[in-house]
Sequence to fold (227 residues):
Amino acid sequence: NAGVTQTPKFQVLKTGQSMTLQCAQDMNHEYMSWYRQDPGMGLRLIHYSVGAGITDQGEVPNGYNVSRSTTEDFPLRLLSAAPSQTSVYFCASTKRGLGINEQFFGPGTRLTVL
Amino acid sequence: SQQGEEDPQALSIQEGENATMNCSYKTSINNLQWYRQNSGRGLVHLILIRSNEREKHSGRLRVTLDTSKKSSSLLITASRAADTASYFCARAYSGAGSYQLTFGKGTKLSVIP
Fold:
């Protein structure tokens, strides 16, 4: 199993540009989520999905869009990039059980918005 | 707002010593999880303790949970240089259609050889 994969690993954008961060998992996990990590802030939840066709907002959803058309993929779209979105983005997945179990994280995407 | 808060923010110890990190949270949980992050890498799950458990062990790791005080601690015994990393606690809550894992800001552990 490849686990959770993310592409690209690095990206530089100009203010106002849009892009999609890709995330895929091959573990048949129902639950997937996107976090951003800023220095000294830990991880903050952007959006999550409990299954195909179902998404919900996390703590910091503004400026981001998600969809979940398949169990495997959970892309994160930046609609109009802003310097405040410079961060490291992590995708994670977990198998649903009694509550949220162990999450498996991807290697991250380091995004810089100029 | 972030619900899991670790203490201390940074910890430096000699190899062979024990390291203790604490985590406090504010609202109810289904379980509490600890993760490790090596510099520049993704997070790796270490251990999960459910709200009805008080203590759990995994190798050199020992986690305790006190739901009355809304706090947890992670003990790493006989630390090694390879344990140098950031450690995060995460509160897991699911209910009323919401499924969220909320992370604290982490404790940066340095183990000096």
Summary: Chain A is about 0% helix and 55% strand. The interface with chain B takes residues 4, 31, 33, 35, 40-45, 48, 50, 56, 58-59, 90, 92, 96, 98-108 of chain A (CB under 8 Å).
